[in-house]
Amino acid sequence: MTFEEIRDKISKHLESGKSYGLVVPNKAYAKALLKALIRTSNVQDTMIIEPDTNIGIDEVRTVIEFLDFAPKGEIKKVILYDADKMTQEAANAFLKTLEEPPSYAILILVTSRWFSLLPTIRSRLQKLQVQLPIEPGLDEFERYLVYWNYDFLEPIKEKAYSILSEEEFLEAIDELDEPSQEPDVIMSLKHLLEQYLNKDLATYANFVSQLAKKNNIEFLRIVSKVVSWLIYKNDSLPPNLKIKYLRICDEILRSKIANFNYQLTYYTLLLGLRGDNL
Predict the structure, then answer these.
(1) What mean pLDDT comes out for the span 32-44?
(2) CA dihedral for 140, 142, 147, 153, sign (positive or negative)
(3) Which domain holds residue 156?
(4) Which of 32, 68, 80, 199 could form a disulfide with 203 if both were Cys (CB 3.0 to 4.6 A apart)?
(5) Cα–Cα distance between 211 and 94 in angstroms, integer?
(6) Which of 94, 129, 164 is the last residue of a domain?
(7) Total structural domains in the chain?
(8) Which Pfam families match (predicted)?
(9) Is residue 164 part of a domain?
(10) What distance in Å separates the CA atoms of residue 139 and residue 144, rounded to the nearest whole number?
(11) 196 belongs to a structural domain
(12) How many Å apart are CA 102 and CA 16, to the nearest integer?
């Protein structure tokens, strides 16, 4: 299905007076879909909650107060991203509203981890699960990246990224606050790792030692994404080691806090990638 067909299918499912759980591969894709769906809505009738950390009771109270008043138009919409980050206290305060929304309201809770939602929340939502449309012209790794972040689609389709030299790459890691640089860093890391994996252990370990100096949670997540892919594609690794390292990567990508021993984590993943233990 195309993006437009998926958007229209969701639009047909949405009814006022109901609560939905929109399950998507990544938040950027959900944003693109929902932006298209609410484009014609009255701004005053739409509330978007996008938490930096957890969704607490204050956010839920804000939603409830918003829904206490009738819409300016026909329908009020509430979009709550990262719904799996809702605390138990917030969920308890939200249950009645989710179960019986006002007749003029549509509530959409967005998550990429349906089973990480609290069971009491899941049971009150109509589940809408959508997949990424298959983009022609992308290779396996490019599709994998778009699965992680839909914002990468255009730069990847247009090949609007650079494969950096090692020196440029190490400098770029320190500037990861700029989202537009992320495709460059990801593609360059994959390229460099594939090169160094074919070198002797001492040379590879020296490269790893340079990466291990970067105490940056965003870069650690990028490393986890690239390592996950390379481990998945590495047929020489025993299944038990694949599972071990993929679990570490998943833990990093799920983590809401940056309390890692960075150096140890880099060495564990990157040496594990070629089957070498600490």
Answers:
(1) 77
(2) negative
(3) 140-272
(4) 199
(5) 44
(6) 129
(7) 2
(8) DNA_pol3_delta2 (PF13177), DNA_pol3_gamma_R_C (PF22227)
(9) yes
(10) 9
(11) yes
(12) 8
Together in a domain, 144 and 123: no
> For tokens 């138009």, what's the residue?
73
Whether 214 and 233 map to the same domain: the answer is yes
Question: 177 and 112 share a domain?
Answer: no
DSSP per position, 182-247:
HHHHHHHHHHHHHHHTTS-HHHHHHHHHHHTT---HHHHHHHHHHHHHHHHH-TTS-HHHHHHHHH
Query: At 105, which helix (H) or strand (E)?
Result: strand 105-111
Same domain, 155 and 70: no
Is 163 found in the same domain as 112? no
Quote the CA–CA distance of 48 and 70 in Å, as a whole number. Answer: 17
Whole-angstrom CA distances from 248 to 5, 91, 240, 270, 277 are: 36, 29, 13, 12, 15
210-265 per-position pLDDT tens digit:
999 888 888 998 999 999 999 988 888 888 888 998 888 888 887 766 678 889 99
